[in-house]
Amino acid sequence: MSTQEQSAAATTTGTQSPDAVVVGAGTAGCYAAATIAQEGYDVVILERKDEDEAGHIACGDALKGADAFPEAIPKSKLEPAFTNTGVDHGRFEIPQEDTVLEIPVPGELAVIDRWEYGRRIIDGAGDAGVDFHYDTVVKNVVQNDDGRVTGVEAIRKGDPLEYEADIVIDAAGSLSVLQDNVDFSESTFDTNVDYSHFCSAYREIVRVDEPVEWDDALVFKPTERAAGYLWYFPRTDTEINAGLGFQMTEEPMQLVDDLKRDLENRPEFEGAEVEDKLGAALPTRRPYDSAVHPGYMAIGDAAGHVNPTTGGGIAGAAYGGKYAAERAIEALETGDFSEDTLWEYNEKVMDHFGARYAALDVYNILSTAVDVDDLMGLLAAMPGDKLAEALYSGSTDIGLKLKLESLIKSRGHWGTIWNLYQTKRRADDLLAHYENYPTSPEGLAGWQARRDDLMETVYETTGADPKY
Q: Among 274, 371, 428, 458, which is 20 to 30 Å from 25 by CA?
């Protein structure tokens, strides 16, 4: 059935009763829904956008881990959206030091056409048997007397709808409205979430007349304040995703002006044509401690499944969707929709990428307490391969020779170096603790208490204000 037919098949009023409802047709939602549908269950994705706009999402378009995706939507389905597979490193521009760092990026890397990619994952989920209901805005979540989520209330073009479902999966993005409407008081679901844990991102798709010289690199550049960075990611050698991300605590238009000025001052963008503009919010925080509640799971941006230092979230969203779907299938097969049944989803996320993202968040915390010029001077003195390890693994080790070389180059920033060294030790301690994530909901409170003690040492070491 085509997506057009699927959309037309949706009724405009009344109550519907699929096995599973997924809210949001992004990466996480499509992979979760496709995984469940392939097992023969009736799955509906509710998408607030219309069919033409679905999949149109603000994104940097850089995809790390392009070689590994869950099988529910075949990679061959997505590959036509991979517009530049020749990128292999990051180019970190540091104007304060008049230098450029070339930083290798481990693993397969690609730049994609995000809208085309969005269409293709929707088609892939449709091929798996998922039913799409577009123009559908979820307004409320339904719970029974025991607190279990049993469905959602929505509206489509002014008409009320109710979806009764055995399992609801929240893939509605950052600061999901669903979470405002669920009573989590009797579950472990993480409610320690604040708008300051998120950033706003804005990007333009810019076409230039002449090929850029750095079409094999992802270009990063700090904004004038430490709260954000600019990026230039080449979809092709003449089509560039130009954007910036900044913490929601900052004034958005002032930082967008940073991007405008930088574009105007870069000779490669003279006479460039802007083809598309779009903004969004994304998490720059650790993953949710728990993203499960009876009958309900949150995935992707709605559960903090984004690398907090780079903003990369596509691969994590795909696997988060897969892991949640596997537990949804178990619940559907057994009729048990408790936290205990769903808990393994949390464990798989923490084991795959959640622990690493939590450790990386420590460096975000450090950045709020360090002078931006000192930080940029220090980065300019560090070896590029070690910076890459720190950005993507959450930890790195620098041998004695490199330590000495870095010390000589970074004279004047030694206080910051000591702070960074101490912060690295705190991040390593945190990473080790996350590797002992509990195997059941009953163990979460004790694990959180120890984690919070470790976070206190992070704040003491960095001098930063508490984030959580």
A: 274
